[in-house]
Every structure is written in C-alpha cells, then in structure tokens.
Amino acid sequence: MPSVQIRSSPATVTDLKQRVIACLNRLSDRDTLALAAAELDSIALNLTPETFSLFINCLQSTDSSAKSPVRKHCVSLLSVLSRSHGDILAPHLSKMVSTVLRRLRDPDSSVRAACAAASVDMTTSITGSPFSILAGPMIETLIHDCDPNAQIGAAVCLAAAVDAADEPDVEQLQKALPKIGKLLKSEGFKAKPELLGAIGSIIGAINGRNSDKAVLDWLLPNVSEFLSSNDWHARKAAAETMARVAMAEQELAPLYKKACVDILESRRFDKVKLVRETMNRTLSLWKQPESDSTESSKLASSGLSATESSSFSKSASSATSKRSNNTLKGKDTNSSATLSSKLKDVEEKDSKEAVETKEKQNRAKRVLFPAKQKPSKVNDNGSNQSQVVVQSSDEDSSEGSSSCQRKNAEELSLIRSQITQIEKQQNSLLDLFQRFMESSQNGMQSLEKRVRGLETSLSVISTDLLVSRTITQNGNHKRNSCLQN
Q1: pLDDT of res. 218
Q2: Under 8 Å CB-to-CB from 354, ≥6 apart: which residues?
Q3: Which of 78, 201, 338, 412 could bond 162 through an S-S bridge, CB–CB 3.0 to 4.6 Å?
Q4: Contacts with 25 (C-beta within 8 Å, 6 or more apart), sequence order
C-alpha cells in the first residue's frame, strides 16, 4: 500500500475518520478483509501526533456486536501504533490501555491474545510513561471483575506486561501481590491457571527486593495446593510459580526448601508430559545448593536455564519411562523370549571363553619361546623338559576349552529342544482352537436348522387347526339348517 500523508486540517481529520470507519466496516467481509487491514496498518504508520486521539477513538467506537476480525484488528492496531511511534504516544497511553481493557471480556481467545500482545508492545515501546499507568488498571480489573473472560484476559495481560517491562514498579507490585494472592482462595475467581502465571511473573519482577517472609508463608502453601488440582494447566502453572520463587527469593527460599522438595517429589510423576517436565525442572531448581542459586537465576533470565532444565527433565522422564518399560517387558515376556535371550547369553559366553583360551595359549607361547627364534633340535634334558611343559599346557588348555564347548553345546541343544517343544505346544493349541471354532459353527448351524424345522412344523400345525375349525363350523352350520327345515 502507498504511504498516506495525513495533515491536521479539519477536512483531513473528517476524511481520516470516514476512511478509518469505512475500513473497519470492510474488515467484517472476508473478501475485503486483507485490503482493509493493510490500509488501516498504513494509516496507523503515517499518523501525526494531532490525529492519534481521533484514531484511538475510532478503535474504541467498535462494540461487541462487531465480528471477531474487526475486534481483533482494532487491538492489533494498538500494537502497530506502539511499535511505529513509541514515546510520542505517552500522553495517549491511558486511553490505549482502556481500549485494551474493553476487549478483555471478549469470548474469542484470539482477541484476548491480541490484547496480551498489545500490552507487551505498549510496555516495551512507550517507555516515557510510568509502568503503573498500564499495570494499575489491569490489577484493578483482575481483582474486581467477575467475568471469567475478563479474569483470564487481565491475568494474561498483566503477566505479559510484567515480564516485558525493563523497570517495573516494584512497590506497586508488592502492594498488589497480597490482594492478587487472595484470589486463589476465592470461589468466584475462575481463571486460576492464568492467575498463578501472573503471580509468578510478579515474584520474578520483585526478584527478592524487599521481600516479606509473611507473604511467602501464605503464598507457597496456597500455590502448592494446586499441584494436585484436576486441571493440568493449574498444576503446570503452580509448578512454574514455585520455580520463580526458587530463582527469585534467594534469601528466603532455603527456609521452605524441605517442604517444597517433599511435595514436588510426591507430584513429579504426573500423567501429563508437560506438567511432568515442569515438575522435574522445578524440583531441580529447589534441590540446588544455595551457592548455585544466583547462577541459576542469571541463566533463567537469559533463557539458558529453561533449555538446560528442559533437557534435564526430558532425560529424567526418559529414564523413568525406560525403567517402567523394562519392568513391563520383564512381566510380559513369554517363555520363548526368555529362552532366546538365554541362548544369546550362552553364545556370548562361549565366544568370550574361546577368546580367553586363545589369549592364554598365546601368553604361554610368548613366555616359553622368545620372539623370532626357532626351536633347535637338542637332546639335553632341559630342552626336552621345556617341550614337555609346553605340550602339557597346550593339552590342558585345549581340554578346558573343549569341555567348556561341550557344556555350551549341551545347553544350546537343551534350549533348542525346549523352544521346539514350546512351538509344538503353540501349534497344538492353535489346532484345538480351530477345531473348537469349527465345532461351534457346526453346532450353530444345526441349531438354526432345528429352529427352522420347528417354525415350519408350527406353521403346518396352525394351518391344520385353521382348516379343521373352518370344516367344523361349516358342518355345524349345515346341520342347523337341516334341522330348521
């Protein structure tokens, strides 16, 4: 799309409003959706500070009756504005935040995801305004709004904004953490997994600065209760929150190490793979010594600890799965499989013993006969005795190897005979099963024939009864008529 240069004259302002409204209306049509979205993005990129307020007002004018693409793109345009204009939008940040808050009740999850993306873009691009302008309304919505969609959206947006902020307002987050934590016990608050994610983000942003032990005294027990929740999203979010505590609270975390390790050990074998990996990663963080906690927090902030811990959890889960598979296989193998494995072991043992006997023979030859020397024909007693010793050692080794080979051969023959017997038994069982099936089929066919014969006999009997009744009725009628005459 060509760039649009917008001026601040009254005619241009009215034209801008009409164009924006026309493009928003075209977003609801699938055929014109792409063109309208591209034109709105071009308008947002080329706005002047005098037209920011008008453009945001147009985005706010769309209500919940509009179609989902319209609602989603209105929020996405806030991201485009933030990335393209930056700190110039600082005076309009509160209005942009209110536009996002109006979309948090949207039932479409893609619209709420666009709200989270817009929160991140506003946090990272508009740095001239304090973080409290964005975080304050989201915290209030999270605490006071009773709509489930609004609770989910507010928790996700707050977590995304806190994670994206370079310098979040620590005092504001510390004051809000007890209020947000109380929602874990509230039955009216339904978005518990998203709330746990927001709590974990706040703990990571505080990062142990002026931490209060009283907060962790009630926070960790409440969070650990969700490790046994029926919702696997809640279990995963609770484990991630406990991992944030282990990385951020370097001074206070050792006080809760034993309790947290015990409960994570009891829940580490979760049936869901993602939860199981998160549990193992969190458990490894809590088991680390105190000296390594600073290094783990640095790695987590740079993104390295996540990959390393995920590899650790994958190796742990693979090891446990291998152990479980081995035990199951050990229980389920039949006699033929055990015999074949025994056969392999005997063959390996035979080959090893053969190699050892060869090595012993070579050693004896090296000791008794030096290298590159041929034995001379002498008739003295010493040479004859050496030859006798060599022959006797060779005979002993050959006899030992032959006896081992005989034993192995006997074992192999026994195993093979057992395998053949098992195969014969299996074949006989298959034959018996086939005969049983054939006899059952023959019995069913004979029963069907008998039932059909009974049906035909019953039909014949019924017809005979009907004929006899008609004959008797006709005879009685004729007799009565004759008597009357």
Answers
A1: 86
A2: 401, 405
A3: 201
A4: none
Phi, psi of 260 (to 5 degrees): -70, -40
The DSSP output letter for 74 is: H
∠ CA 64-65-67, nearest 5°, is 95
For residue 253, is pLDDT > 80? yes
Per-domain residue ranges of the chain: 1-129, 207-322, 348-369+386-434
pLDDT in the model for residue 123: 93
Comparing 442 with 151, which gets the higher pLDDT? 151
- Nearest residue to 300 via CA among 200, 192, 211, 194: 200
Q: Which of 384, 393, 388, 385 is nearest to 365 (CA)?
A: 393
Please provide the average confidence, as pLDDT, over all residues in the chain.
Answer: 77
Residue, of 141 and 309, whose pLDDT is higher: 141
pLDDT digits (tens, 9 = 90+) for 158-181: 999 999 998 888 889 989 998 998
The predicted model scores a pTM of 0.58
pLDDT in tens, 347-370: 565 566 666 655 655 554 454 444
**CA 73 to CA 33: how far, in whole Å?**
10
CB 252 within 8 A of CB 216: yes
The whole-number average pLDDT for the span 173-201 is: 91
Q: How many angstroms separate the first and last alpha carbons of the chain?
A: 116
Render pLDDT for 414-448 as a digit per residue (tens, 0 to 9): 888 888 888 888 888 888 888 888 888 888 888 88
Distances (CA, A) of 417 to 47, 221, 339, 346, 424: 90, 64, 10, 15, 10
Q: Which of 96-114 are b and which e, b meaning 16 or more Cβ less than 10 Å from the residue's Cβ?
A: bbebbbbbbbbeeeebbbb
Residues in the chain: 485
Pick the CATH number of 1-129 from 1.25.40, 1.10.150, 3.30.70, 1.10.10: 1.25.40
- Cβ neighbours for 42, distance < 8 A, ≥ 6 positions apart: 1, 2, 3, 4
As a whole number, mean pLDDT of residues 73-80 equals 93
Category of 208 on φ-ψ map: left (φ > 0), alpha (ψ -120 to 50) or beta: left
Q: Are 92 and 82 in contact (CB under 8 A)?
A: no
At 262, list the tokens. 């015990």
Around Cβ 268, how many Cβ atoms within 10 Å? 21
Q: How many other CB atoms are there within 10 angstroms of residue 157's CB atom?
A: 33
Report the alpha-carbon distance of residue 233 to residue 461 in Å, rounded.
72
- Note whether 153 and 103 are within 8 A (CB): yes
pLDDT computed for residue 466 by the predictor: 83
Identify which of 231, 224, 225, 229 has the alpha carbon closest to the alpha carbon of residue 286: 224
Q: Pick from 158, 234, 239, 138: which is nearest to 201 by CA?
A: 158
